[in-house]
Amino acid sequence: MAKKKAKLDTKTIGMIAIGILGVLFAVVGLFLPWFASSASSNVLGGGITQWYGLFSDLGAVKTDFPFVMIQIFGIVAAAFSIIGIVALIIKSLGIAKIGGLVKLILSALIIALGVLAIVFSFIYAGNYGGGLDFGDLARAGFSVAVGVFFTGIGSAVTGAMLLFK
């Protein structure tokens, strides 16, 4: 018997396109700011914000949560997103059969890595020292920035596309 050629219908092309968009978000998110520290004063009439990327030297700061854990999960989430989109394309083109338990485990792993990258970033930001609030005199804080969401949501979207294909 001849090998049955896979058809690329509109739904499959759309899922691949959304998966590729998720991978782009995940990879670009690695190079965007992951954290922001800000200080402002209404009395003095100004403020300043300092941005920190995933590869910034925040590991020297002593917190209860290690910064290297965020770096590992961010990079691994983006790497597994790339693996996920390759698996989705291979499955869609009929090059190899990827289904059942392997697809379920890979997509669940990709989604979990993206969510954990977000969760660990929030834990780190919360343990960094919190914020200072002296009313109108001065305010200071430390929070997550856009790169966290790009990488986390991008990898979760890629995992979801693999799961639903």
Structure description:
The chain has helices at 10-29, 67-93, 101-127, 146-164; strands spanning 33-41, 46-53, 132-133, 139-144. It has a 4-stranded antiparallel β-sheet with strand order 2-1-4-3. The protein has one domain (10-24, 61-164). The protein contains 4 helices and 4 strands. Strand 1 and strand 2 form a beta hairpin. The model has no long low-confidence stretch (mean pLDDT 85). It is 56% helix and 15% strand.
Q: Which strand order do you get reading across the main beta sheet?
A: 2-1-4-3
* Gyration radius, in Å: 20 Å
Count of β-strands = 4
How far is it from the N-terminal to the C-terminal residue, by CA? 26 Å
Q: Any low-confidence stretches, pLDDT <50, length ≥5?
A: none
How large a portion of the residues is in β-strands, by DSSP E? Answer: 15-25%
Structural class: alpha+beta
Report helical residue fraction. 55-70%
What is the H/E order? Answer: HEEHHEEH
Number of helices in the DSSP assignment: 4
Global mean pLDDT? 85
Gross morphology is elongated
Query: What is the domain total for the residues?
Result: 1
